[in-house]
Amino acid sequence: MNTETHAITTKVIKKWDQALLFKILDNIQDIVMVLDADTTVVYINNAYAKILGVPVQKVLGRRLDDIEPEALALEILRSGLTTHNRRDRLASLGIDVIGSGFPLFEGEKIVGCVSIFNNISEVVHLSRELQRTKQVADYLQEQLNQREQLPLSFKEYVGRSGILRETLELAVKVARTDSTVIIRGESGVGKGVLARAIHNSSQRKDKPLIIVNCAAIPEALLESELFGYEEGAFSGAKKGGKLGKFELAHGGTIFLDEIGDMSLNMQAKLLHVLQEKELERLGSTKTVKLNIRIIAATNRDLEKMITDGTFRQDLYYRLNIVPLNLPPLRERKEDIPELADRILRQLAEGKDSELILSPQVMRILEDYDWPGNIRELQNVMEHASIICSADQIEVRHLPAYLRSLNQQSQSVEEKPLDLKEAVARFERELIVEAIEKSGNNRSFAMRQLGLSRGSFYEKLHKYNIESR
Question: I need a surface site. Which of 106, 305, 320, 395 has the fewest CB within 10 A?
Answer without folding.
Answer: 106
